[in-house]
């Protein structure tokens, strides 16, 4: 705090870098590093109280010090932690973002990476927590696993975001096989992104996921030991799926007076998918989360998930699934819905074992992105559905778990209605010429 | 050009990075790299013609590619070469500057550095051109020479600015000894910055000199093999000194009608310094540039140089010597005027053999900077003189070559007048208490 005070006048000079010794900025870093939260908040307050051009110069000088960008990220993290909304935040975000542009490097984590990086990694995965040292080591096996992270080049020991990759034969459909199986995969042809975690609360709102996935993909494409690996896909959770089912069941109970609504819900939950005769078993599965109750629903759960991902929309017309939005916006395609893909506690309680592969076609992903040739936010979000839907045809629906040709036909029709509702006529013309007619209609 | 066209629509999207493959930006780099100047100008024109937010996004995406910052610098260089003043220039300058903040690294050049870096270095020195491979190798001798350069971390093979350092016993006073002497210096205690050259026309106006000198100094301070090296100084040319003398001689001839002017000039050139009896020899020296005529002026040339550096001021009140302004603004002190320091063609024609040591006191230089505690440009430039002058005393004047105590006294008086003219009363009070009284006044 006293350091900021001693710098504040000089920071108002255009050439502040000539009157502020690097040692003074480094003394700030040292003071910050050992400060308690109260002191940190005082430091932030004093930084925020100097004129904006001066605080910008401070941030700029900080980026030039060893680990300077890391210090800025730490300050931003504290701002969030204290829920402070200060003018300083804008300068911080812009300075950090600008320095990450040319400064980010993709790094590979290995068993012999520095211990503190390994430790950070060990506690990083909140979706599939790493149960033990042994499980952690498994993720770093040279033969069939990869872990990549992004770091600013000043501080390669400060991983900002990390992605876990399994090298598998075929596009993997079970997370347990990836996490728990010690047998090495032979002849892998696919790289499966099975977990991506931000390690930095200070980067909230600065999305590095797309950059990490594309960088990691490029690393693997350039790795001569992985020439056979040509398929890239995620194996992703569906965090809100069971919640959606529960909500619908509640409506089912409470909407007795609404004939249309009951018909809709029955259509989704009972008639088309689950079958009326299985409805009480389904209720038990949803309540007990017992994986042993799953087998009976190997067909209906994918169908329900399909409805969830496509028929349901958030208020801004994107899908209600943030994971789906993330990958589709990245240019990935919804490729396969996987039944019994995660039978662990988390997988059952969030999505009744369902997981999704979002496929990254390295040649097409840049064209796939919903933002292509559009610039208004509205079209962007509508198009998440539109573009993805337009690529659906009968064969894809079958792979997605819709077995009955009649159901596929109905779904395609329903999809058409959705699309007609949200897209303009030019796009509809394209759509009609692109959508294939189902092979058999019973 | 066609690439820019194909990108321009997508660049208008907020998330352009998700619909433009790195390969497309890299294709631009490739096309740029092999283009002739006409094509380059067309490319620049097409970049300049897209909306500003789109061209900014292009620059931002470029910084993320391998050697991307180098490409931007090359584009900026072409803008200068073609003397184009386009809106694009602002975006280029800002993007490059922001990425150099955390991206610059100081590197040491060695005999075994990549050949193309050595080649760039060999032709870099425009002040003291490197005459031969052998002379170049001399500058890289581990024992008593150093060469440092700044490069963006993406491209360590692209040196942006380079500084040559000689490790000497005592602060060096002869550039020939540094450049031509093959005998290794024993027990060096001083690091002499004897040449600093920008290697990048594309960075014109982006001053990296201060950063290079401070980074190189820090490198040497941290080098355990150089613990005895504690003095840091430049050995600098005075490019306009002889031109100034010539101008004054011309005035001498033409200002016959102006009594006051003649008195002034006579005061500077003849009476006080050169002595009337030597004036025609001096004229011959200035015209012939024959070093053999130098000895007679070993006292008067330093005095004239002193006048040049202090009595003369540019229209903005800085000194007329850009080299002096550069070092003093960096926080260095004018420390010694060296007679017969450069007797080569360049040294004679520019400054009649005179060179200057600007001393970098690593503890004081940040406080020395003229910008300290001031923010308006006017004070900044006035203060180049003010601060430097305030540190002058009798002893320093003697070291600067003013032998006669009477002359020193007169000079101090004259300096006081200069200072009184340009500084306010608070500073004058400080000055009177700081300026030491000459030890002997005859």
TrEMBL record, chains A, B:
GO terms for cellular component: mitochondrial matrix; peroxisomal matrix. One of its GO terms (molecular function) is malonyl-CoA decarboxylase activity. It comes from Oikopleura dioica. One of its GO terms (biological process) is fatty acid biosynthetic process. This is Malonyl CoA decarboxylase-like protein. Residues 104-360 form the Malonyl-CoA decarboxylase C-terminal domain. It holds the Pfam family MCD. InterPro entries: Malonyl_CoA_deC (IPR038917), Malonyl_CoA_deC_C (IPR007956), Malonyl_CoA_deC_C_sf (IPR042303), SAM/pointed_sf (IPR013761).
């Amino acid at each position: 705090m006293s350091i900021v005070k001693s710098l504040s006048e000089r920071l108002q000079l255009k050439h502040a870098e000539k009157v502020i010794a690097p040692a003074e900025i480094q003394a700030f870093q040292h003071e910050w590093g050992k400060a308690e939260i109260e002191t940190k908040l005082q430091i932030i307050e004093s930084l925020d109280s100097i004129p904006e051009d001066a605080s910008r110069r401070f941030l700029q000088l900080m980026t030039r010090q060893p680990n300077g960008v890391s210090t800025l990220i730490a300050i931003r993290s504290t701002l969030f932690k204290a829920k402070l909304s200060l003018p300083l935040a804008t300068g911080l975000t812009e300075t950090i973002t600008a320095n990450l542009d040319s400064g980010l490097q993709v790094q590979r984590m290995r068993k012999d990476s520095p211990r503190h990086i390994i430790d950070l990694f060990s506690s990083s995965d909140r979706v599939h927590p790493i149960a033990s040292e042994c499980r952690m080591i498994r993720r770093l096996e040279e033969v069939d696993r990869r872990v990549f992270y992004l770091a600013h080049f000043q501080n390669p020991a400060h991983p900002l975001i990390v992605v876990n990759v399994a090298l598998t034969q075929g596009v993997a459909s079970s997370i347990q096989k990836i996490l728990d199986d010690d047998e090495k995969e032979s002849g892998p042809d696919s790289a499966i992104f099975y977990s991506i975690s931000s390690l930095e609360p200070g980067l909230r709102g600065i999305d590095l996921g797309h950059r990490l996935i594309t960088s990691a993909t490029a690393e693997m494409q350039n790795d001569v030991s992985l020439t056979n690996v040509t398929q890239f896909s995620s194996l992703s959770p569906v965090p809100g799926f069971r919640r959606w089912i529960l909500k619908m069941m509640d409506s089912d109970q409470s909407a007795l007076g609404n004939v249309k609504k009951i018909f809709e819900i029955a259509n989704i939950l009972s008639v088309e998918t689950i079958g009326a005769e299985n409805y009480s078993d389904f209720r038990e599965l949803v309540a007990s989360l017992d994986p042993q109750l799953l087998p009976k629903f190997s067909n209906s759960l994918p169908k329900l998930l399909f409805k969830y991902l496509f028929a349901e929309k958030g208020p801004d017309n994107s899908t209600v699934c943030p994971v789906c939005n993330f990958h589709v916006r990245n240019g990935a395609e919804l490729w396969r819905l996987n039944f019994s893909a995660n039978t662990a506690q988390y997988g059952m309680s969030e999505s009744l074992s369902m997981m999704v592969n979002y496929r990254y076609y390295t040649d097409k992903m840049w064209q796939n992105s919903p933002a292509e040739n559009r610039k208004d936010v509205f079209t962007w979000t509508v198009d998440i559905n539109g573009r993805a839907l337009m690529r659906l045809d009968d064969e894809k629906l079958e792979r997605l778990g819709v077995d009955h040709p009649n159901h596929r036909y109905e779904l395609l029709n329903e999809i058409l209605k959705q699309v007609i509702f949200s897209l303009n006529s030019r796009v509809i013309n394209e759509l009609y010429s692109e959508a294939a007619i189902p092979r058999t209609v019973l």
